[in-house]
Amino acid sequence: MKKIKIGFLPTRRSIFSAPDAVKYANLTRERLEELGVEFVDITDINAEGLFYEEADREKIQEKFRNEKVKGIFMPHCNFGTEYVCARLAKEMNLPVLLWGPRDERPDEEGIRLRDSQCGLFATGKVLRRFRVPFTYMTNCRLTDPEFERGLRCFLAVCNVVDVFRHTRILQIAPRPFDFWSTMCNEGELLERFNIQLSPIPMPELTAEMKKVKEERSEVEKIVAYCKDKMCVKIKPEELENVAALKAAMKNLADKYGCNAIAIQCWNALQGEIGIMPCAANSLLNEEGIPVVCETDIHGAVTALLVEAAGMDENRSFFADWTVRHPDNENGELLQHCGPWPLSVAQEKPVIGYPLAFEHPGAVEAQAKLGEMTLARFDGDNGEYSLLLGNAKGVEGPYTKGTYVWVEVENLKRLEARLVEGPYIHHCVGIHQDVVPVLYEACKYMGITPDLYDNKEEQVKAFLRGE
């Protein structure tokens, strides 16, 4: 699993037991180490290794910034000092996990040492006053399963938020004229979310392709990989173009510091290089660089969020909602010309010809069945949301391209959401349930979660530790 570094900020308040707070801070440190969580500690800030004084706040903030932590974990080892925690959280602008260990039985004289739960109520209120979004992990014991589950969920949330705030997309050519649905507001994405685009014209791509062809070595490696991993049903010179396109896109993404790509796909590209880009897209998707079609910027953002929510354990696939299942009333076909990563396929993929185009270079394969998450980041008229929910792959008729038939809880409800918007016919899927992580991450990204399953209470219950 991808490592996410968090700041460890155990807190106490003076009127409760300091020794017991130190004890629980140390027990929590030990548990984090057992779970393999990478954290930045504050034991060098004061003798107790606890946060309760304003004088320590700036030193801790500086340390967390220098260590580039992606989130802050605030164990309330007794009641805690809510106002210094809130001040630090406001300054850091990172995801915050609020938790306290479950309190023991009062002693024989009726004395309570910590009152951790009571302090959580106070800190939650003060964080709201500061308008600091936070994640709450239920008041539980360190050994309870809710602790590990909540912590790992929070780490994934931190990963999503960090990726979202550091997104730069290589835009290869403008959107195809016919695709008015994929237009986006570049200035608004930058102003609202710091999502940056790096637009390049088609000739810059073809020039890079020419360069990598002349250098040969990378192209030859990619050709050999394709022959090993796929059934190649296109001509040698066409396969070389696929390899050159893949290498060129990777080079350009590196040059402009981009973590995803949106490419025009058609029709100008075919006139220049004689192939569809689908197979090249597939190869990059397999390497963890999401590439989406029809210059769909919002689709590229979605792919990044979905893979980050899965902690990069599985690759995502970019698909069209296309037609209803002929036999299953809640079934739908997810399909595209062939950009899906190889690891998504349940069979050896073929490089051949797409359904609607004459040029070669598309991948054909049915995706694995099983449980999955489907999502779409989108917006218009200044409002942005994330459509998300669960689906399961089901059997259905063969069709061209990369495809999978899926079943959802209520297709009519989902269909209405897609038509009424702000969404379009594109989505991103992943063979993993990341709905709770994406739902929780929305509060930090400033977008509205939109659950097409109508299961918001179940998702909240999961996040609460139920």
Topology (SSEs and partners):
Elements: E1 6-8, H1 18-34, E2 39-40, H2 57-66, E3 72-75, H3 82-92, E4 96-99, H4 116-129, E5 135-136, H5 145-165, E6 168-172, H6 186-193, E7 196-200, H7 202-215, H8 217-229, E8 231-232, H9 236-255, E9 260-263, H10 268-273, H11 278-286, E10 291-292, H12 297-309, E11 316-324, E12 331-336, E13 350-352, E14 362-366, E15 370-380, E16 383-394, E17 402-407, H13 411-420, E18 426-430, H14 435-445, E19 448-451, H15 456-464
Parallel strand pairs: 1-2, 1-3, 3-4, 4-5, 6-7, 6-9, 8-13, 9-10, 14-17, 16-19
Antiparallel strand pairs: 11-12, 11-18, 12-17, 13-14, 15-16, 15-18, 16-17
Helix pairs in contact: 2-3, 3-4, 5-12, 5-14, 7-9, 8-9, 9-11, 14-15
The neighbouring-strand order within the major sheet is 11-12-17-16-15-18
Shape: elongated
Rg (CA only): 25 Å
**Residues in helix, %:** 25-40%
Amino-to-carboxy terminus distance: 24 Å
Strand content: 15-25%
pLDDT averaged residue by residue = 94
The largest sheet is: 6 strands, antiparallel, barrel
| Number of helical elements | 15
Briefly note the structural class of the backbone: alpha/beta
- As residue ranges, the low-confidence spans are none
Strand elements, count: 19
Provide a descriptive summary of the structure in words:
The protein has about 475 residues and is of the alpha/beta class. It contains 15 helices and 19 strands. The mean pLDDT is about 95.
In short:
This protein is an alpha/beta fold and 466 residues long.
